[in-house]
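To: structure subgroup
Subject: Chain for Friday's discussion

All,

I'm putting the inputs and outputs inline so they're searchable in the archive.
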Amino acid sequence: MKRFSLLTLFFVFTLMTSIYLAGSSHAQGSESESMGEQIAFIRNGDVWLMNPDGSDQRAFVVGISNAKGRMSWAPDNGRLAFSRQGKVDIKFPEGGGGYHYLYDLFYAFPDSLPERKNFWMGFTNTLGSQSPDWSDNGKTICFTYDRMGNVVDASVPEYSIGFYDPETETFSHMEMPQDEKQLFPLMPSISPDGSKVCFVLGELQSSGMKKLGLVVLPLEGELPATDVLVETASNNPDGSSPDWSPDGTKILFLQSEGVYTANADLSGEKLVCKPEEGLWITGMASWSPDGNKIAFGTSNGAIYTVNLDGSGMIRISGPGNDSNPTWTK
């Protein structure tokens, strides 16, 4: 297989910081200190903000049209980490071709509101980084990392869990053990204290990536053998999009037919709510800062909030093209 980097070779697997700025760069008062509790969400590929009751919906990062997936706030809510999606089309000289998607991670800054919009900067350039989750201690951003993201003719992805230290701007990643099974971690969420990670375990099969279920692992120590990982995932085979509660005692996860929670070891699975009839759950969901509510999206492009006990479900945006709500911390 030919393996040519999309970037010049000395940029492969390095992280760079580059700033993209629209509008004035003059300092302004920090909106993050005054905006109060907010929910960020994606609308038509741009990033928007709204109050938890759905009021005051306003553009945050506009004109990019390619924001995708999970977003995550810094502990002080001074930055929002999000991913953007690109695409490479391939036409081989001998004929044939194909395409694959590219992703990288970015910060958006709420202190650029309201006068300045589109103040954002990239902090990875791997072309394979997506779905960031910022630990509550602020030391780590974990994300899905495709090591083949910058390979032009990569036939299959090679996912691992990426870790980025916002202070030192250093990058590392954790791979799954490999044998005859091709196992990969997807959609990781890091515990508030940064000691554990919950993710969806996937197995690459001839028909594509098969979701095996949820797994929780400590970030210190040796990884379990593949058969142990598979057995663990089988205890929760339908869960996806995990998210740790602010106090670290529970994990929120989604199935197409409902929103669920479990204990931090994935025991005690409990249905919180189901969407309205004819709809299904999509994207990522998020805890409120006090851990008493959950925000989630549905297949008709609407966003809802619900109390942890399943009561008080209300639609706060849409229907339209809204997704991936992310509560401030």
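Points worth raising on Friday:
Residues 226-234 form the longest helix (9 residues).
Residues 1-32 have pLDDT under 50 and may be disordered.

D.
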